[in-house]
Amino acid sequence: MAWLYEKSATWRKIVAVTRQSPLAMSIFGVSCFAVPYGMAKLAMWGTNPENDAAKERLLRERSSLSHQVLAKANRERLAVLLGELQRKEGGDERYAAALDGRSLGTHSLGTSTGARSIQPTLAASRQEAPSKDAP
Fold it and tell me: Fewer CB atoms inside 10 A, N or C side of the chain?
């Protein structure tokens, strides 16, 4: 900074003004953050002018019923999990189960508590198994 102070008259003026006035120092400090931030936002907007909100709205309009049901179920599960965290219920058990690779599900109606994966039936597994007499 000493080199800049020695070589630039503008910098010397800035230092002199900000040394005298706390308001000038505040304005200078804010401008040191606001100007680069504004330039970065402008550069991002210029290089990616697409409107993400419009894209999101279009995707929501075109979504199928299964996507809407899945999104609603996920929102409900998240609400249950966040409610449990606020009430401090079941957090330790859920954490311990997650470390073991298990899922306890959410503790309300219509969620994954007690859910099982689809298991093949005994009859289907007998049909798929080759017989011992086959060559």
Answer: C
